[in-house]
Amino acid sequence: KEMTVYEKFIIGMLTNFGNMTLDKIHNTLKMFCAEPSYDKSLQQLQSFLSGLVSDEKLEMRDGLYLLKK
């Protein structure tokens, strides 16, 4: 639930940069999210992204996350 604040950042990154791996999303959030600061683990992010896939907001294909069309 506390991860929902990052959903807009993630959607924005995928819109601007295209498909991204879990590591790339994680590292980009660590670099650019100052308020609130991003201090989550890779596993927490993966779990959150899996929820977004279940909610049909994102797709996961060949190790890449992409926006659902």
Automatic annotation (TrEMBL):
GO terms for cellular component: anaphase-promoting complex. One of its GO terms (biological process) is cell division. Keywords: Cell cycle, Cell division, Mitosis, Ubl conjugation pathway. InterPro entries: ANAPC2, ANAPC2_C, WH-like_DNA-bd_sf, WH_DNA-bd_sf. It holds the Pfam family ANAPC2. It comes from the Eukaryota. The keyword Magnesium does not apply. SUPFAM superfamilies: Winged helix' DNA-binding domain. The keyword Cell cycle applies. Residues 9-67 form the Anaphase-promoting complex subunit 2 C-terminal domain. This is Anaphase-promoting complex subunit 2. It comes from Aegilops tauschii subsp. strangulata (Goatgrass). The lineage of its organism: Eukaryota, Viridiplantae, Streptophyta, Embryophyta, Tracheophyta.
